[in-house]
Amino acid sequence: MRRTEPKSVGELLGEFFRERALGPASMEGRAVELWAEAAGRYVARCTEDVYIRNGVLYVSFSSSAVRAEVFMRRKQLAAQINALLHAKIVRNIVVR
Predict the structure, then answer these.
(1) CA–CA gap between residue 72 and residue 6 (Å, rounded)
(2) Which strand ranges, in their side-by-side order, compose the sheet holding 56-61?
(3) Which of 8, 21, 30, 71 is deepest in the core (most CB within 10 A)?
(4) DSSP 86
């Protein structure tokens, strides 16, 4: 099939990565990158460390109030990250 409309390099790269299933390790890395977008600007500023291991996202905070808020919203945040990834990568969030 021939395409008639021009596409930007960003669109082409996006299609390339969507069409080819990215490996779990790179998807987990992307999940860490999406933490700030899913959690919001204030929570991201209070975040000290984020990493993922075996589908569990570990997050530590400088503020106990933010820690408590994220603890209550952890299932919702995991669902948001998975929705942004279009895959179920984050199974749980551990708040530290």
Answers:
(1) 45
(2) 47-53, 56-61, 92-95
(3) 30
(4) T
